[in-house]
Amino acid sequence: MIAKNFGAKSRLLAVFSSVALLLPVSSHAQDLLRTTLANGLQVIIVRNTLAPVVTTMVNYRVGSDECPAGFPGSAHATEHMMFRGSPGVDADQLAAISAAMGGDDNADTQQAVTQYFFTTTSENLDVPLRVEATRMRDLLPDQKLWAKERGAIEQEVAQDLSNPTYVFYTQLLSAMFKGSPYEHDALGTRPSFDKTTDADLRAFHNAWYVPNNAVLVIVGNVNPHSTLALVKDIFGGIPAKKLPDRPVFNFQDVMPDTLKLQTDLPYGLTAVTFRLPGADSPDFAAAQILSDVLSSERGKLYGMVPAGHALFAEFAYDTLPKSGLGYAVAGFPSGADSTNQLEEVKRILSGEVASGFDADLIEAAKRREIISAELQKNSVSGLASAWSEAVAVEGRTSPDDDINAFRQVTVDDVNRVAKKYLDLDHAISAILSPQESDKPISSKSFGGAENFAASKSTNVKLPPWARKLTDKLPAAISTLSPVTMTLTNGITLIVQPESVSGTVSVFGKIKNNPKVQVPDGHEGVEAVLDKLFSYGTKSLDRLAFQKALDDIGANESAGVDFSLQVLPDNFERGLQLLADNELSPALPEDDFKIIQEQEAASVAGELKSPDHIAGHALTVALFPTNDPSQRETTPDSVKSLTIGDVKNYYQAAFRPDMTTIVVIGNIDTDTAVSLVEKYFGGWTAAGDKPSTLFPPAPDNTVSVTHVPDASRVQDKVTLGETLTLTRTNPDYYALQLGNHVLGGGFYATRLYHDLRQNGGLVYFVSSSFNVGLTRGVYQSAYACDPPNVAKARTLIVNDLKQMQREDVTDRELHQAKLMLLRDIPLSQASVDEIANGWLGYVALGLPLDEPVVAGKIYTKLTANDVKAAFAKWLRPDGLVQVTQGPQPH
Predict the structure, then answer these.
(1) Which pLDDT tens digit goes with each residue over 656-676?
(2) 759 near 791, Cβ under 8 Å?
């Protein structure tokens, strides 16, 4: 559950009729069905056959814009209470239903919309629809439920207020949109939540959560016509209501100002922000293309990076229906002259506006917007989000409306919009300077010895329409059929043809571990090399290489993890460019010297930043002295590097016999194989393969470390311990099964039940096993107010001990198996997730059908197997603790 800010994409933080109208999508008219029910509910059904999966998104056209005066978080709080139950489905039932479907559901609140989404197997589509219909009707009338949830939502507030970038964002909203509903975001405040009542939230829900204020988007492997019949049956009886009046937007002129804040980031930020048109403006499309042009790596703003004047530089555009924000952002290392950088950003922007923008860059931006829209079809949930954004937020007919508008944008349009909106006399600037942490403080005690009883969640009786979810375990099967081969030079090639979009994606990974592979004294060489890949190839310099990508609208990146996304007609040219960048990088010495200076300055700031200090403190606590994991890059190690060191590391680490390439998309297998062999087949390696494995690690000793962080009002806590367990040990599966009893299913799992649902101590809590080929780590993480650090830890430790002492219940075991088995198809509902899963399995020496293999193992495991594994491998009294933020008390 999220209070979503429309700045989240940038570095600073989107007529009644009962007759269905058929429209074409992907050239297949039968793939899209849309209608408006008699009660006003808009319904959009899009067929996508990537996996046997479906995503439902209910979009209510209500957000923080409609919140009562003095209660800016009412929409956000209502969203939270939707998970506390409705008449007919209480919180425990909701949690059990979600877990049984695979646990992939959430919600977010924005200024203009509140969204609820489920992703589950197609055969169970009716269940999330019935959940949403139930929640549309009402909330449970219970002040006690709100009292418990208020603790969790106030922890979410504390979490965001512990982020200095978010604090800046709230100040920016207030300055840019003073006197309008946009002057605050959707999060809300602790004081307003303290005076909010359950009755207030039910009134807000009943006013706005009505079918005639909602858009239901369904995307997945479904039959549109039978799905529409199901929707009519489930939602058709909910009556429409007259909606309250919408807020009025009267924007005042922006008064220029410069904000100065501190940040706990390892680098600083300068920003120049402008009020840009909203989605309902005729200038929207030209403003989006303008933003893309300003972010181009061939543009003058990005040119600050190769010139050594910025660590990064970009332009971002975040829109709302009535207005938007444009950010020109640049990064500087700690101690650098931020004022000069800010003035340079302003000079570049004013110069671009005065001289006008290059027609070639504008056409390149339009091509990239078109391929970006096509790539949305490579994810079931991503496509649902795209339709929801277009229709519910922007008020479009479909996502294609934006694409058609982008196609019509001219050079004159872009220049006109730039002159109109990029006005420095009505801009707000900002400088966020890095804030160092004090030295960490170590102790032997974790700060409390309270005894809080852990609890098993009670047996839950599901509504009749949901019982089919738990009747029996689904089979462990996959619909994927990849072709795998090893090329003569040792590359592992995996090809999976898919026709859900008109794109082809390439994902590559070189097995690599700098902590082990980098020679002593050369720490940081891998980071310098990674940055040098963007400086062109031996045949094309930086600008020429970027233009070649722009000419075909391709997205490309090189390094130990490399990728390409391109239209099928341009696949060969795109693959040629990717191979040229990966196998023949220019590695220019002049650019190396600039990057070296920047990296040394960045590292100096990194070593003093609270996040880095906390992360390193955890590593030091877990692993013995001289363990490779404790190696740190220093300014001196970076400054000592030569371009020869970089080239030597490249030759040693970048090898075809340690590389896996996945090609997935609208291409046949023979063509993919032939072209990969053509452009990557000549890649060779000499000598033995380098080791990439950490040494085995012994059990850690108990320790507690506090890392001061003056920017946080909330403590971020990580508990951890080393495991001598390796990934090939069969106990791994029993531990993963038990971990799904502990966490991962929201209120349905023990940690969420104890720490959030009942305790209200945290907003989130995680539990995870990270197990490799030589060693593993168990971690649990949470964030809470300083007085509650010990309470939350005690509950986690008690839950772990209970896993060792007692069998999990039959219901918990069955539920955990359902989550893991149903995750198999859910993990195949995105091209990126499919490819990255395969790359990970190859790196661990596992088969590509590892999820199916694991699923069959999970099916046979018993409660005693889980208890024995936790008793054997976990040491609840041996956890290390690292706390970042105020001193716990």
Answers:
(1) 999 999 999 999 999 999 999
(2) yes
